Amino acid sequence: MLELGPGTGVITKAILATGIAPEKLICVEFSPEFVGHLRANYPGVNIIQGDAFNLDDTLSDKRDTVFDSIISGVPLLNFPVHQRVAYIEDLLARLPAGRPVVQLTYGPKSPVPPGLGNYTVEHFDFILRNIPPTQLWIYRRAHAS
Ligand SMILES: C[S@@+](CC[C@H](N)C(=O)[O-])C[C@H]1O[C@@H](n2cnc3c(N)ncnc32)[C@H](O)[C@@H]1O
């Protein structure tokens, strides 16, 4: 499994609580401070410091890994729409067909609009108890390409 933008590791902790082996989880975080915190708190997890928008370089020798799912907390609303679409398309290319990319966002709408690429958009959940409240969106391959 791949987690992008784990920050303080709240979701990392929840993923590990499902029983996944730490070495099966790869986390990519841009901030060196958060990376230090994550490495100290989640031994065994592959914590990589780097840019989620440039995963081939960031993942290095793991770039060809086929993940079973991806969760992203990277703040997509800070980026133009064409870059968000390219981001989701890149993530979907790292999953088997039908498997999900889950994206967290603080806005009311999907940060990646439907109809701009080979993906479906599904609202998954609204987590009111998160600070700030967070929407979860799921993206999947629309058809084989
Ligand atoms: C909203 S926070 C994630 C919150 C996290 N889920 C938590 O509960 O602590 C977004 C995170 O994405 C990281 N980030 C932002 N841009 C990134 C990028 N291009 N590549 C990797 N991480 C990035 C930030 O450093 C920050 O830790």
Task: Briefly characterize the structure.
With 145 residues, the protein is of the alpha/beta class.
- The strand order across the widest sheet is 3-2-1-4-5-7-6
SS-based class:
alpha/beta
Bound molecules: S-adenosylmethionine
The CATH architecture name of the largest domain reads 3-Layer(aba) Sandwich
Q: Please report the first level of CATH classification, the CATH class of the largest domain.
A: Alpha Beta
**What pattern of helices and strands is seen along the backbone?**
EHEHEHEHEEE
Question: Which fold does the CATH topology of the largest domain refer to?
Answer: Rossmann fold
Number of domains: 2
Total beta strand runs: 7
* Mean pLDDT value: 95
- The proportion of residues forming helix, as a percent range, comes to 10-25%
Terminal residue distance? 23 Å
Organism: Aquamicrobium aerolatum DSM 21857
Keywords: Methyltransferase, Transferase
GO biological process, one term: methylation
Pfam family, one: Methyltransf_25
Please give a handful of descriptors for the protein shown.
25% strand; globular; Rossmann fold; single chain; 7 strands; 145 residues
Explain this structure.
By secondary structure, the protein is of the alpha/beta class. The chain has two domains: 1-59; 66-145, Rossmann fold (3-Layer(aba) Sandwich), CATH 3.40.50. The chain has four helices and seven strands, in the order βαβαβαβαβββ. It has helices spanning 10-17, 32-41, 55-59, 81-92; strands at residues 2-4, 26-29, 46-49, 70-72, 101-105, 119-127, 134-141. A seven-stranded mixed β-sheet has the order 3-2-1-4-5-7-6, with helices on both faces. Strand 6 and strand 7 form a beta hairpin. The longest helix has 12 residues, at 81-92. The protein is globular. The two termini are 23 Å apart. The model has no long low-confidence stretch (mean pLDDT 95). S-adenosylmethionine is lined by residues 4-8, 10-11, 28-31, 34, 51-53, 73-75.
